Amino acid sequence: GKVLVFLDSHCEVNELWLQPLLTPIREDPRTVVCPVIDIISADTLAYSSSPVVRGGFNWGLHFKWDLVPLSELEGPEGATAPIKSPTMAGGLFAMDRVYFNELGQYDSGMDIWGGENLEISFRIWMCGGRLLIIPCSRVGHIFRKRRPYGSPGGQDTMAHNSLRLAHVW
């Protein structure tokens, strides 16, 4: 398809979640969009709304969520306006297929899990793109309490990937 949509397998979409994601991509194919990620309990599967947040990272290159300042939600579109985000979670986003290929897809030097979301976020910003959170699109996600799989040989893939991210960018 023209637009690629990436969703972790442990997600549940809401009604009318896709249309708000497609509009910014149609307007600018170098725009990568993410829904607001709501929380599904790993224990009970109860669904709860998440606050409007955007991606960030710390000095250890670990992804984190940051609250969006109220001043950014008070524009003409109010709380429905797309929000610029430095980074994304990585498992829930949509982007133009041609742009994904132009960027080089996912970095094949990354290993299994961890840091790939920051790497592609940095690449989007540094290669002429923009990354937006779309408040009118909401997708539920089961946040696991621990990593559900190991690494071959017990390698710390998060450390490996963070070091690669630092060296490449």
UniProtKB/TrEMBL annotation:
Keywords: Disulfide bond, Transferase. GO terms for molecular function: Notch binding; polypeptide N-acetylgalactosaminyltransferase activity. InterPro entries: Glyco_trans_2-like, Nucleotide-diphossugar_trans. GO terms for cellular component: Golgi apparatus. Residues 1-97 form the Glycosyltransferase 2-like domain. One of its GO terms (biological process) is protein O-linked glycosylation. This is GLT11 acetylgalactosaminyltransferase. It comes from Ceyx cyanopectus (Indigo-banded kingfisher).
